[in-house]
Write a structure and sequence with these properties.
single chain
Length: 537
């Protein structure tokens, strides 16, 4: 759909970008890093986990008897039941296990959630204005941990002496010590856990979490003493602390300053405040936000519409229409839409109020489920809504005697479309674009997209809890576990825009795309490429 001739008639420059929620583990995915120390560390950890050899020592050599006794005493002080049984379980089932082959790679520990459950609860906590991080490799904790013993002192302090203010079910706030946030693991929900383990599941979670964190500290200090912490600190600074700042810099940069609308996905609620305080973006754009802004999942779709181009307070034709669309989604859709994932508004294109559609527009943004199964049902609901507006909404066109036409739809999606289609399992990109053609809509990638034109490229490392999903560095390009897919689209009505003059991907922040580079990078803060297109009549 590309064209070299100069555009005529209406044209619209549109950007869509899943800015992505903050990933609290800077090591979770491979990134493009200029420091060879990063690649060396990732390669060495991979080699260690794959073939530890004699380095596959016993758990008891990392969590010593003295440390375990201290742990038991702290658990008893906090009133946990089953500490003595946990002690027996430790000596009978845990202490003599090998740290890699019999602990990190043990599928039963994963199925019982003995590490993943306490990690989820204690890894990163918001307490008032503070963010609390458990002393571990797999989050943004910044204090140095040059030895297992130094880590242990910090870990004990966090788990048993640090309090967090948390919301109760009644909506009130209360202060709890971190260890008190753990819940029992129920056999009814996780059948892999035994009845014996269920009874002592809280002290057992604390013991297994200590083992997991201790092993990782041991591994990185063995492989890269004095180096790994510097690598991590730089990544935390770029990927976490400066993520919002860099995201705003890219959106407001001269490369994208001419965009008429910015369609954003997976924005945290706090990001809205950052947008409204940003001099360039707040002065140039109407910052349109869901009425039901979701601050719990903290993944929201937003629309930024040019103040020069769009009118958002036109009487009779403005406002959010998300709920109307949601109500049109097929009841038997294979996947639901989570709060904040879909956002749609009506507005008027001031440059085209004399056109057949009176400048009426629907701007929408959507973040699909992991497998893309909700994308087609949502697309159908949006299309149905726009066509219902054509039938039911009186417009100025009626008074002018012009034929009534549907409003202009511009829709930015992280559609989570994949290279290959699997009915009922994964939404393929070619199948998606064929479906669009059937309802007179078009993706910026055209009716016959290149399935290898990827907008994501990331793979899990060996420094994260789900080792079954880890990818070897040498296999990133070809491994089925690598997320390298054409997921992001700008969809529009083919009756309004006949062609795309320019369509581009950006995984650098400066308007260029590096094909063989995994992202995010230290300068590009998202795991989704930015997509920008100029739509022309």
């Amino acid at each position: 759909m590309a064209a070299d001739e100069p555009p005529v008639g209406r044209q619209l420059r549109v950007l869509t970008w899943n800015v992505a929620a903050v990933n609290n583990n800077p090591f979770e995915y491979f990134i493009t890093h200029v420091d060879p120390a990063y690649n060396d560390l990732m390669a060495d950890v991979e080699a260690f986990i794959d073939s530890p050899g004699e380095r596959d020592i016993a758990v008891g050599e990392i969590i010593t008897d003295t440390m375990f006794d201290e742990l038991c005493a702290l658990m008893e002080t906090h009133g946990f039941q089953g500490v003595e049984q946990t002690r027996e379980y430790w000596f009978g089932h845990v202490k003599d296990r090998k740290i890699v082959s019999q602990f990190l790679k043990d599928k039963d520990i994963g199925a019982k959630r003995l590490c993943s459950m306490p990690d989820r609860v204690t890894n990163t906590l918001r307490s008032g204005d503070d963010t609390l991080y458990r002393p571990t490799i797999i989050n943004c904790y910044e204090t140095e941990m040059p030895s297992t013993q130094s880590w242990w002192e910090q870990w004990k302090q966090y788990m048993f002496s640090t309090s967090a203010t948390v919301a109760t079910k009644s909506g009130d706030a209360e202060s709890k010590t971190i260890c008190e946030l753990l819940d029992p693991i129920k056999k009814s929900k996780y059948p892999a856990i035994t009845s014996e383990e269920e009874l002592i599941s809280i002290p057992l979670q604390l013991a297994c979490m200590a083992v997991f964190d201790g092993i990782l500290v041991h591994v990185v200090n063995l492989l890269a003493p004095g180096k790994w912490h510097d690598v991590k600190s730089e990544m935390v600074q770029s990927l976490n602390k400066n993520k919002t700042k860099r995201t705003l810099e890219i959106l407001a940069s001269p490369v994208y300053a001419s965009c008429d609308c910015l369609l954003i996905q997976e924005a945290a609620a706090a990001f809205v405040g950052d947008l409204t305080k940003h001099d360039i973006l707040s002065s140039k754009y109407h910052i349109l936000v869901p009425e039901k802004l979701d601050g719990k999942r903290d993944q929201n779709s937003l629309v930024l519409a040019s103040k020069e181009r769009f009118l958002i307070d036109d009487e009779g034709w403005s406002g959010e229409v998300t709920d109307f669309i949601t109500n049109l989604i097929a009841k038997d859709a294979p996947a639901g839409v989570a709060p904040g994932d879909l956002f749609a508004v009506k507005c008027v294109d001031k440059q085209h109020v004399d056109s057949a559609d009176s400048g009426r527009c629907v701007l929408a943004s959507f973040h699909g489920d992991t497998n893309g199964l909700a994308t087609v049902p949502v697309m159908d609901a949006v299309d149905k809504f726009v066509k219902l507006l054509d039938v039911n909404q009186p417009t100025p066109s009626d008074d002018n005697g012009l034929p009534r036409v549907p409003p202009t739809l511009v829709f930015g999606l992280d559609a989570n479309t994949h290279v290959e289609h699997s009915a009922g399992k994964k939404q393929g990109v070619e199948d998606f674009c064929t479906h669009l053609e059937g309802i007179s809509l078009v993706s910026c990638w055209g009716p016959q997209p290149d399935p290898n034109c990827h907008t994501t490229y990331n793979a899990r490392t060996y420094l994260q809890p789900q080792l079954n999903k880890a990818v070897k560095m040498c296999e990133m390009q070809t491994c089925a576990l690598t997320d390298k897919h054409p997921k992001d689209h700008i969809v529009f009505g083919g009756d309004k825009f006949s062609r795309v003059q320019i369509v581009m991907r950006d995984n650098t922040g400066d308007g260029t795309f590096v094909e063989d580079a995994p992202f995010p990078t230290l300068s590009f803060p998202s795991d989704h490429a930015l997509v920008c297109a100029t739509l022309c009549e």
